[in-house]
């Protein structure tokens, strides 16, 4: 009713995030694209970079790795131009997740390391916790070599600890779930659990 384009964009982003939580990724993508169309029209470049990162992450959730890499790389370049380090870190973390799924561990490792450095320097605990969780997944997959795999537990534990510090229960749950998934697939942990039950 008020016709404020930036408030409309904020509402569309919130609705898109809600659709993500409900695993309705097609609706989420549609809402983020609508928001992007508005910010592009009004020339709000800072918001463009943030929304591009969301669109790229949604393509990843939909299993479209090629489009995810394309959009996240575009977001990365725009964030770099604008000096938007927070969303640059998010784009890098998004790329790390896509590269991990593609088995491109070196690229995944480099992207997540950059994301962790950025979030650490910005003192953004919630973003750093998410990047540590992604780093745990990459480490568990052998991103730093087989000998380094057990270090994945350290990254998951650091992520959980940070989430608890800031009282973000949703992120705590995500990190515990990622850690449980790692434990379930890890031979070392399987042997450890087997010995504990003997």
What are its keywords?
198 residues, 83% helix, globular, 10 helices, 0% strand, single chain, disordered C terminus, mainly alpha
Overview of this protein structure:
With 198 residues, the protein is an all-alpha fold. It contains ten helices and no strands. The longest helix has 18 residues, at 25-42. The protein is globular.
Show unreliable segments.
Answer: 193-198
Give the CA-CA distance, first to last residue: 67 Å
Write down the secondary-structure element order.
HHHHHHHHHH
By DSSP, the count of extended strands is 0
Question: Outline, from the CA principal axes?
Answer: globular
Write the layout of secondary structure elements.
Elements: H1 5-21, H2 25-42, H3 45-61, H4 65-82, H5 85-102, H6 105-122, H7 125-140, H8 152-166, H9 169-185, H10 187-197
Helix pairs in contact: 1-2, 2-3, 3-4, 3-5, 4-5, 5-6, 5-7, 6-7, 7-8, 7-9, 8-9
